[in-house]
Amino acid sequence: MGTCQSLLKGNRPVMGEEKPTIVFVLGAPGAGKGTQCEKIVNEFGFVHLSAGDLLREERNTPGSEYGELIENHIRNGTIVPVEITCNLLENAMNKSETKKFLIDGFPRNENNLEGWNRMMGDKVNLKFVLFFDCPEEVCVNRCLKRGAAGSGRSDDNEESLKKRFNTYINDTMPIIEHYDKENLVRKVDANHSEDEIFDVVKKMFQEE
Predict the structure, then answer these.
(1) Are strands 47-50 and 100-104 parallel, antiparallel or unpaired?
(2) How far apart, in whole angstroms, are the C-alpha atoms of residue 110 and residue 116?
(3) Closest by CA position to 79, among listed 101, 61, 48, 52
(4) Which bin fits 106, alpha (ψ -120 to 50), beta or left (φ > 0)?
(5) Which residues are annotated as a binding site for CMP?
(6) Which of 112-121, 145-154, 168-177, 185-194 has the lowest mean pLDDT?
(7) Which of 10, 15, 30, 73 shows the greatest Cβ crowding within 10 Å of its Cβ?
(8) Considering the chain, what is the average pLDDT of its residues?
(9) Which residues are annotated as a binding site?
(10) Which residues does 129 contact at the CB level (< 8 Å), separation at least 6?
């Protein structure tokens, strides 16, 4: 609980009376989650919360007691303890006037799912899980290009990408399968152009 209390210190209790609407956004590294989230934000007024971006921001915060721990997990392609991620997400939701959120890159494993359900499940309304399905080769090429273009991400390199893909296949795919059994997954073929993919995504949000 030390982690939770430290990160939540000074924040009001989450969410008031209105439960926020959540869409989880999952897919392999380089599947285009961030790009599509930006388009959804512009079209439908959601707030985009990237679990990875929040963790990188916490890592870079001077004096953060979790900075080194987070960096080690990011470099090794492993998953940060769920209490840290959940509380960073909860803090970000508390600060927002909008109550519609895209949560990108989470939950990434069974521990994330269990932690989310325990800490946040009753506080939110999960609308669906948006799953960007894309071949590994395409995703790796996109990430390497992003790294070469100066993404500034310490994990946009071939060695980290192999680890991240193993984590995705072994840990995240079972989460997608879990939500699929609950008929909550909306699957998108992400091996197309940004605009073609968004045409499909748009229909999914319009139908809900």
Answers:
(1) parallel
(2) 10
(3) 52
(4) beta
(5) 112
(6) 145-154
(7) 30
(8) 89
(9) 30-35, 56, 78-80, 105-108, 112, 146, 153, 164, 192
(10) 23, 24, 25, 26, 176, 179, 184, 185, 186
Q: What is the mean pLDDT of residues 154-170?
A: 86
CA terminus-to-terminus distance, the chain: 37
The whole-angstrom separation of Cα 15 and Cα 129 is 21
pLDDT per residue over 15-66, tens digit each?
456 899 999 999 999 999 999 999 999 999 999 999 989 999 999 999 998 9
| Element spanning 104, H or E | strand 100-104
CB 31 within 8 A of CB 176: no
- Give 49's strand partners: 103
Residue 93 makes CB contacts below 8 A (sequence gap 6+) with 14, 15, 20, 49, 101
Helix, strand, coil percent content, the chain, rounded in steps of 5? 55, 15, 30
pLDDT for the residue numbered 17? 64
Q: What is the pLDDT of residues 58-90, one digit of tens each?
A: 999 999 989 999 999 988 888 889 999 999 999
The bridge status of strand 21-27 relative to strand 185-189 is unpaired
Q: Please report, in range form, the residues annotated as the binding site for a ribonucleoside 5'-phosphate.
A: 56, 78-80, 105-108, 153, 164
Closest CA to 115 of 81, 70, 90, 92: 81
- Residues of the binding site for ATP: 30-35, 146, 192
